[in-house]
Amino acid sequence: GNRIAPDGPLAGKHALVTAGPTREPIDPVRYIANRSSGRQGFAIAEALAARGARVTLVSGPVALPTPPGVTRVDVETAHEMANAVAAALPADIAVMVAAVADWRVEAAEQKIKKTGTAPALQFQETPDILAMLGESPRRPRLLIGFAAETQDIVAHAIAKRTRKNADWIVANDVSGDVMGGETNRVHLVTADGVEDWELLDKREVGERLAERIGDAL
Ligand code: CTP
Ligand code: CA
Description:
alpha/beta, multifunctional enzyme, binds calcium ion, single chain, EC 6.3.2.5, FMN, eight-stranded mixed β-sheet, lyase, binds cytidine-5'-triphosphate
């Protein structure tokens, strides 16, 4: 059946979601990337669309079908993702789920050859898309980030919420095998405190988050 609800709680709202990894090229055949299947971001985009939002999903390279009713923009690098996000504004809601590569290198034009000495890569930081939205005059009214952490999960997430001027941070324990898996254990960090959610299917995390977004707007 049709899962899109034109009269749902998010009808008339534009939601912007980032998902998946980014890839930063080293040369024409190699890249640096993060481990991310895109599943959690796609599930959130689908749940928002099912509640009536107009959804723009900016996705890095993933092997997933586009959820029903969602407008998808495919990108590769962090710079491309930042540009696609800026081009999709204004938005009422932004949920930044992408595992953006933190560093890029100046890509070589030709394939780097093996010479017996490993190349020394010079890293530069990529643009922080969530922080950019947090500072923007076109900041979405509800700005939500994710924080993938392997230790001190909630403390890092609380710091990120303030540093990036986000409303909520969904803190994500990636110390196990979450990356690419079906389930997620998250903590929702808001100005009011921290909620510990039980281990949930990524779809259920998407549903619950979309419901909370509907309540907040
Ligand atoms: N993020 C982003 N752009 C980046 C890096 C991160 O938009 N260049 C977003 C992510 O999509 C996520 C949030 O910022 O919503 C936190 O990402 P995370 O990697 O946990 O935080 P960082 O600030 O990159 O810090 P670190 O990797 O050092 O923990
Ligand atoms: Ca990071």
